[in-house]
Specification:
The protein is α/β, with parallel strands linked by helices and 127 residues long. It has a single domain, classed as Macrophage Migration Inhibitory Factor (2-Layer Sandwich), CATH 3.30.429. It is 29% helix and 27% strand. α1 (18-31) runs antiparallel to α2. The two termini are 29 Å apart.
Amino acid sequence: MPHLSFDYSRGLGARVDLPAFVEHMRREMIATGVLPEPGIRIRGFEADHSAVADGGPHHFLDMVLRLGEGRDAATRAALADRLYAAARAVLEPQVTGLGFLLSLEVVEIRAEFSRKAFNTLRAGATG
């Protein structure tokens, strides 16, 4: 269940090729060898409202990688380093000259507090 979500500042999508960023990150997640490809999900959301630092025209892209349990701290740290470097490599040339903040947090989801289901609605069911 490696899910990478990111929020980004309004207007960043006009300056950064976000579809290419998503594909780059998907390939990088697979290349780690520790994230199962069938579970990879990447999604981005533009912030409707935000304020950054002094309120100036700054941009941001804030990532959260959610993982199921089972990877030790060293593996999670290595994932954070690798994925942050991958994001930076693709974004940095596109944000040169902008006030820009890139961040990543790796979150381990404890199984005892996680619920998942598939096909919870039957085809054609209503209400």
